[in-house]
Amino acid sequence: MKQYDERTEFDQTFQSFESIQFDERDKKEVYTNIMNKIENKPSKNRFSKWSKHILTTAVVAIFFIVGGYLLTDKFIMDQANPTPLDENKKTIQTYLEKEFTGPNEELSNILDNGIISPEFNAYREETYGDLVANFKNMVNLNHILVFLIDAHMNGYQLNPKTIDIQEIEDTQNNVYNYKVEVEYSKGNQVNTATVTGIINLDENGKISMIRKMDGRELLEKINQSIHTTLKEVETAITEQGLELEEPDLPSGNAFIQELNDVSPKAYFIDERTLSIYEFPTVQAREKGMEDFEEKTATMRLVPHETYTNKNILVFYVEGNEETNNKIKTAITELE
Fold first, then answer.
1. Phi and psi dihedrals of 213, rounded to 5?
2. 272-278 sheet: strands from edge to edge
3. Enclosing domain of residue 312
4. Is the domain of 212 the same as that of 93?
5. Where do transmembrane segments lie in this chain (predicted)?
């Protein structure tokens, strides 16, 4: 193929302009302008015209294919390697779902037999043990199953309608606000209450503290029909044909001590001590029972019966079987 010599063509182009004086710079500028005009002339080659469109389309297609692959790959990697923030929110979400869902059949059967049982303790630890840093502390602070116990006592079912969890920024620890819209239902009646609070997680991603929890609205709603008065208990017992006598008891009697800031009303039935505690709520009664167990852990107690119903706790010491049955009937049938 003949070698193209741009310099030769450059000189030949300007031979016809000998009568005009051009220096090298002028010649080069004119030649460049001419060549640019020629190169910019629209091509009559239809293939060349369509090839530009095809090339553009191909570039766009490659962009979307590669971009889509990268986005998909990033999504898969994010799912496979969740951030600590994602894991923390998942832990809180799981805890809140457990607190405000149910009670299920298993828990209801356990609660029917009372909360002072190995089965109840095992259920709590199995359900929450992996979520919290200090299980015993969470139990003592009433941060486990409080709402479901009250719901069971009054025949309600709970369901978390919405759960909103937001990280509190500019804090040294893992701290989150939460807000739960909880449905509480009985039969065909369904209502909603809001529970809010703050949850701290430790460096291992476990719940270490729950602060400023406000569930009063929900507790008040589901507890409205489960408060029994001392007068109602006295009436129920006397309707069983039992006589309540005013006793003169020593202050050291284990069955008339203050429990969870509540002092009992004490009586004699058949010369045996009967004490009735009226707590403000079911959870307060449960805390009172725990208080009793702690205070009497090292004592040798005389045989006695314990009865509970809603917010009421009753002790009866060394009674005969007939009297025990009458007291049990009176307490368990309270509405």
1. -70, 125
2. 265-269, 272-278, 312-317, 304-309
3. 230-332
4. yes
5. 54-72
CA distances from 224 to 27, 176, 227 (A): 103, 31, 7
Residues 217 and 92 in one domain: yes
Task: Give me the mean pLDDT over the 303-331 stretch.
Answer: 91
Bridge-based pairing of strands 174-186 and 304-309 is: unpaired
Closest CA to 223 of 146, 282, 158: 282
Please indicate, yes or no, if residue 52 is contained in any of the structural domains: no
Instruction: Tell which residue, 216, 209, 175, has the closest CA to residue 195.
Output: 216
On whether the CB atoms of residues 239 and 330 are closer than 8 A, the answer is yes
Tell me the DSSP string of 222-234: HHTT----HHHHH
Strand partners, 245: 268
pTM of the predicted protein model: 0.50
- Terminus-to-terminus CA distance in the chain, angstroms? 111
Residue 59 lies in a domain: no
Burial code (b: 16+ CB inside 10 Å, e: under 16) for 256-277 equals beebbebebebbbbeebbbbbb
Average pLDDT over residues 74-90: 66
Q: Give, as one character, the DSSP assignment of residue 141.
A: T
Number of domains in the chain: 3
* pLDDT per residue as tens digits for the range 184-194: 998 888 999 99
CA distances from 182 to 142, 145, 146, 162, 213 (A): 18, 14, 14, 7, 14
Q: Cβ distance 260 to 123 under 8 Å?
A: no
Neighbours of 225 (CB within 10 A): 13
- Residue 314's nearest CA partner among 283, 289, 282 is 289
> Which two three-digit tokens encode residue 150?
């009250």
pLDDT tens track for 27-37: 566 556 656 65
Which candidate, 208, 198, 222, 194, places its Cα nearest to that of 102?
A: 222
